[in-house]
Structure formats: C-alpha cells, structure tokens
Model the fold of this input.
Amino acid sequence: MRADVVFFIGGLALASFITQTVLATPFAPMRIDVGPIAHRIAHEDCRLLIIGDSNSVKSAAHSTVGGVCRTWKPDHFIGRVSSGTAASDEGIVVTTAQGGFDVYPRPIFHVGTSNPHTWSNGQDGFIPNRALDMVTDGTGLSSNAHYCTSTLTRLDEYPGGDWASNAPLRARLIFAHDQTGLSELQFRSLRGDSAGPYVSFSPNDASDRAWIDWVDAHVPMGTGEVTTQVRTPAAWLSTAQGGPFPCPENCTEGSTFYHVGQVIWRTDVPGLQVDSIAEGGFTVEHHLTEAGHYDDEALQRYLLATRQPNCFMILLGQNMSWAQMQDIEGLWRSHVTQLIDRYRSAALAVDADANPLFLLVAPWSTNDDSDRHHRIALVLADIAMQTADVGLVNLHLAAGAHAYLQGTVLPDGVHYGDDASANLLAGLVWEQLQRELDQKTDLVVQGDPQDLSTLTLEDGDILHLASGMHTGPLTIDSIQASVRGWSNDASGIAGNDAGPAIRIQNNANVDIRRLQMHGGAGHTEGDGLLAGGCIYGSDSALQLRHVDMQGSPVARGGVLALRDCHATLADSECALGTAAETGGLVDLLSSTLEVTQTTLQDGLSSHGGGLYAQTSQITAVDVTLRNCTAQVGGGAALVTSTSHWVGCRVLNNTAEAGGGMHAYQCAAELSLTTVCGNSPDDINGEWIDSGGNSVGGNCSCPTDFDGDGQTDVVDLLILLSNWGNGGGEGDVDDNGDVDVFDLLNVIAAWGPCG
Done:
C-alpha cells in the first residue's frame, strides 16, 4: 500500500494508519466503520432518527428526510414518523379541521416562559422537529368533524414503489398529556373506505408535568389511501346518523390537545423507518441537556413513542456559535461527543439490550470557502475512529467544493432548492453505504501532487483527488470507475512525455468530474501517431462533467480523442489544443458525443481546428465554439457524420475553407444557433436550417468594444479607461457619457455575442 494513497472500505484495523495520514491533510477519509450501520439500514429492522438542523426538518419541503426516502434503497421501507401539524410533502401529510383549534409555533428559544401553549415542568420547548404542534380547544367543531387527519402520500416515489399497498400496517398517535387536556378523544385509521376500530384515549393528566404518550390503532387491509383521524367520542357518526354533538364536554374553554406526531409502519417485515429531531438554526449544543430544549425524560419518552430508534444520523455543523467556530477541535468536538453520549444513554435507558449505532455525516461546504468544513470532517473522522459504535460518511468530500452546490442545489448557500438537490446530497450518503455493502473501494489521494501512472484501479473504484496537479497518465482499463476532484480549479491531472492525463480503454465505463487536465504526449495509435493530449478513449463509455482541459501538441485530438466511444461532456471547457492532422481540441472516430453548456476555444489543426468528426454522431446544446484555426473547418470539420447544434454559438473561427464549419458528405443540422465572424465563410457544405438560426455577418455587439465577438474583461477595461470622458467607446446607451448605466449593460451582456 502506497503511503500517499489511502484505501477505505471501513474497519477499525485501518485506524492507526488513517490517523497518521488523514490528520495532516485537508481531507478526512471517504467513510469509516459504516459496515454495521449500512447493513442495519439496508437489511435489518432499522429505526433511523436524523438529528440535525433545518435541512433535516421532516416537515419542510426538500429536506434531508425527503431525500433519504426518495433515494435510499433498503430491503423495505416500513414506516415514517410525521410531524405534528405542519403539512409534510413526504410520507405523511397532516391536515386539520376547518375550525375549533389554534396552531402555535413551539417557542423553543424562550424556554420557561408562561406561554400557555407550551408544555410545562422541564419539557417546555421539546420539539421533535420544526413542525407546528397542534393545540385545539375543541370549540367550533361540528358533530362529524375531526381534530386532525393524517394521510400517507407519494408512496409511488419511494424506491420499490408503494410500500404500504395491501400490507399489514399499524398507526400510532403521539400526543402530550397536559393538565388542561380534553377528557377523552378517539383515534382510528382507514384504508380507502374501510375503517378500523376506534381506540379511546384521554390527553388529560392530573400529574404536575406534561409528558409524552401514545395510542395505537389497527389499519385495515387493502390498497386504498391510508388515513388516520382524531375525533371526539361521537361514535364516528354525524348528527344525521344519530351521533351526539360533541359539546358541551369538549367545548370547555382552555381545554387543549397537544399533537406531537404520528407513526405509520408495516408489521410484517423488517426495514427502515425514518424520523428526525431538528430545528432551523440548531447547532450541536442545542441538542444537549444544558440547552434546555428537552430534558432526558422527555427524550426517552419520545424514543419510546417512536418505536425505539436504533440508528442515529447526526447531520450538524453548518450552524455554529462563534465560540464553537473558534475551537472546532476542542469545544465543538466535545459537544459532538456529548451528543452521542446523550442519545446512547437515552436509547439504553429505554432498552437495556439496545445496540444503538451512530452515523456521523461531515456536512457539505456552502458559500463558506474557509477551512472550517475540512476541520469539521477531520474531527468527525477522528471521533469515528476512536468510538466503536460510530461511523462516518464524509459528505463534504463526496459533494466537492461549495461552488458546485450553489444555484438550484443550495441557492442560499445552505438550504435545498428542490427535491433533486435534496436527493443529490442524501444520495451521496447512500452511495457510500451501498459501496460499503458491495465492498467497493474509495481511494483518496492526499496532500501534495502524486504520480498516478502506477495506480491500478479495480472495478467499481472511486478515486478522489485532493488539491494539486497530479501526474499521469492514469490508465483505466476494462472496468467501471470514477475519478472525482475537489474542484476543477484545485484538483488536476497532467499528462507528460509518457502519455495523456487519462487513458481509457477496452470497454471501460468512466465518470470524471471536477477536474482540471493538462495535456501530455498523447496515446500512440496503431499507425504510430499520437492522439488525445488530455484524454484518449477507445471502445469505452465516458461521462465528463465540470472538467477544464487544456490541450497539447499531438497529431490528433489536442484535448480529447475518442475511438468507438460514447461520451458526454457537460459544464466544461476545452482549450489550447494543437493537432497536426485532425481535431485541434476534439477528435472523433466512429464515436458518439453529447456536449452541453461547454466552451471549445483556441484550437489549431489541419482539419477541424476545434472539432473533427468522422463517421460519428454529435449532439451539441448551448455550446460555444470560437477562436479556432485550421486549413479546413476552422470551428468544426464534419466528415460523413451527423450533428445537431441547438442554441450554440460558432464564432470567429478561421480556415482556408469552412471558417465556421466544413461538412463533407453530410449535413449539419442547426437550431437556434448563431454562426458569425468566421473567415472566410461561416459554413462550407450542406447544412439544415431547423429554425431560429443566425448565420453570417459580424459577431460584434454594442458591448464588444474590441470586436472579438464577446463581452469580457478587455471590454470592461476599455469602458473603465473612458469613464466620465463623455461619449465614444464605452458609451453603450449613447447618452453622451460613459457611466454606471454602461457598466450595467456590459455586465448584463457578459459572454459571447449573439
């Protein structure tokens, strides 16, 4: 085993080696000791409780809980714990009657106040999640109204489909006893039109403190929608059916009902039940006893009520107090260990034979690009290595740099933007659990640049590259594998005289993301010529995303050469490639390429300065092909190939024939595409106009002051040099002055013209 590469499948046997290696590097391991946890979640009776902040609130849209339920794939999902009354879009939706109750937020940051809508005697502020608990005084209800209804939803979206259809189910109402509670209520469940028997219970309590209780109900068999109801003791009959009106007993002013949550679960198979204790803004210390949000007795009662959770996923660290942030290795670490100890003790107090397991998840980086998340990951890794019942999944490393989590993934730097974003991060955690079960290896290349040319990848390996420009060629042969960097401006692989950065061959299937690559000598083909400065692929499948490739001088494909391959290229850039024969940047032979949101620029070749394709298929969407030079086909040379260009820009390319594109024995199909500024012509050969195209003319636009076909930093400098000088160059709006309005126009037009 090389000292600069760390192999992780989990296991305490690696602990001493990992400690020496990890703590001196910016990355923790990918995972540590998650084997028992993964097996419990995937194959056993696992009652998972997520302890977190706002991203783990189960009643919020796009939460971690929702992502878990949509992406994890245990043998069976067996249950969900709902929130009190806030409508969840996952698993159980709780609705309420049209009148007769008030809903209040739990004042968790005002523990001990005299607010009549909180529980008393040390349990004030206990909140199983951020949901609003229901408080009802029983007034305003008709004889056939109910206090609340819970409905199982979206079951077809769970892995494996609707886990509840025609399966034996049990429903549980979790509520709080209180001195002002109603004297008697009833709880029952329905499936479609079939109703189970009601169960009477009393939320009223004469003791001196509120406490958690629960009542169970049988769910009828069938395939219809599963619902539960809480009602007054009116025999479930309307007045028209002879049922008594619930007043006056249940219309007493001040009588209340505190609804904590509901559980619906299968009784016939083991599987995964999901719950969370979370609150927006929570830090680790808010889950400790001294925070006062819930005492140990309340916690134990909640664990009992929710069927004794035996697996705890701790997802905390995005929020930190200033003191914690200044002392991550000391104060914050002590809070994490105290949290584990508290929940372990609570689980054992509920069941002395329990075997609680803890999954630490190193949080993802957000708009914070300091070293805080690296330090958190290292602390959690060390805790996991030193504690037998604790494992780690390093979501921070799996997700990559914070730049990849902005936009729709984490639009405000912290919270999910949609279901797909929550699924991405929850799915990355599941990927590591599944990889542990499959005994797949994650290789983490740590620290300074390393030589990858002697590294052998096995089938299913994922190679994680820390910051630095590592040296190739990395050869991937006849296997499925992934190569992931931290970011394409921090992690990279450089080719050299021995070959390209990466060589892929013999039916390999490779996913590459978040990398920078510099070209090398390329791969020697059968005729002795070199091809593929950055990547050479043959008889394989490639997926490239967020890669920044700078080519080198070779015979074919200064950046990328593909032979009998299927490849996708997205959110990337290929530049500065030189090929003596074909494909200054990209060279395709009998291959398929799907390329989206990518820039190809500054390529030089005899044929196809930017791209050369022979007997191949190309689909290009939102691609910029510019500033490339060739004898034939400055931008692209297409030979007996099919291509469809949608929303693309072919700009300022130069050749003796076909400045923008040259098509030989084929026709390029263009839609919504701009082809301009190419010399001596824009398209040489046949092309199909599928509408919305602009072909011919000068590419310059009002904000392109230097006429290079794009608005960029050069144009900005020209504007600033003329600031306040009156009209002329830089006066975009022709108002007689170069001012802030012109600056705003330049910013708005940033990028290629057209």
About this structure: The chain is about 15% helix and 35% strand. The two ends are 54 Å apart (CA to CA). The CA atoms of residues 228 and 340 lie 34 Å apart. Confidence is low (pLDDT under 50) at residues 1-25, 96-144, 243-252.
